[in-house]
Specification:
Blueprint lengths: L1 E3 L15 E6 L2 E6 L2 H7 L3 E6 L10 E5 L6 E4 L4 E13 L3 E2 L2 E9 L12 E8 L20 E8 H4 L1 E8 L6 E5 L12 E8 L2 E6 L2 E7 L6 E22 L1
Antiparallel strand pairs: 1-4, 2-3, 3-16, 4-17, 5-7, 6-7, 7-17, 8-17, 9-14, 9-17, 10-11, 10-17, 11-12, 12-13, 14-15, 15-16
């Protein structure tokens, strides 16, 4: 269940790791390892929303857009949001997120004997808005349906776990690739739970996996007023411990 909560200070997490970043083109930084100082600045904040998915999915807070297919569904089970689909699906968080924020959750791709089990497409949208429509939630779940939106998109383990890509959708049908990884260290492992942090703060957005910065993008036209969504296709995934913080 989605829980708006009273603002509360969240304590800092003490990490000791190393950092390396390489400037590839103006305005774009790609982090290979996390910097203690950087992540500590982003930790804490005021808790705005949380959902532990312990009750039936609240469809006022979560908007499902799913291509019709047999043996497909989105539901809660055992304290997790489950995306179990044969085709494309987007599950939007219905609250518009503005300003400096951090989105966090734990997520994994399940591979066992399920009919939709496939190691691929651990994907997410954020900062999403429709330049031509006040109502964002009007699509049927096919990836191409979102081409006209402005948003950030990360496809982690896409193309049957061959690529991890970061794109910005510009709202006019163009979707420039900012950067991609193809090495095994940045792809998926079956049934492994990953802790994800997405940060939008002071002109920059970044994507962190288990405390490691995969992508950082300094954007002169930062998308800091829009919607977040879990995205996938043909897989079975679960999400736990969803949180949104004001930074």
């Amino acid at each position: 269940m989605h829980l708006p909560v009273n603002f509360a200070k969240i304590g800092l997490i003490n990490h000791r790791t190393h950092f390396f970043a390489m400037k590839l083109k103006p305005g774009i930084l790609f982090c290979l390892f996390m910097a203690s100082a950087t992540i500590l600045k982003a930790q804490g904040g005021q808790l705005l929303y949380s959902d532990n998915f312990t009750r039936p999915l609240n469809t006022a807070n979560w908007i499902i857009e799913m291509e019709p297919a047999p043996n497909s569904g989105v539901y809660t089970q055992n304290g997790a949001l489950v995306l179990n689909t044969r085709k494309g699906v987007t599950v939007w968080f219905s609250q518009r997120l503005k300003g400096n924020i951090r989105i966090e959750y734990d997520r994994r791709v399940l591979v066992d004997t399920g009919k939709n089990d496939r190691l691929s497409d651990f994907n997410q949208f954020w900062g999403a808005a429709d330049p031509n429509n006040a109502s964002l939630f009007s699509r049927k779940g096919k990836l191409e349906d979102y081409d006209a939106l402005s948003l950030y998109y990360i496809g982690m383990g896409g193309n049957t776990n061959k690529t991890t890509r970061f794109r910005k959708y510009l709202g006019d049908g163009t979707k420039p690739l900012i950067q991609e990884y193809t090495d095994a260290a940045h792809l998926l492992q079956a049934n492994k739970s990953y802790h994800i942090s997405i940060i939008v703060k002071d002109g920059t957005t970044s994507y962190w996996v288990d405390g490691q910065c995969y992508f950082t993008y300094a954007d002169a036209k930062l998308l800091n007023d829009g919607y977040f969504g879990f995205r996938s296709t043909w897989s079975r995934q679960e999400v736990k411990n969803f949180r949104v913080y004001r930074l």
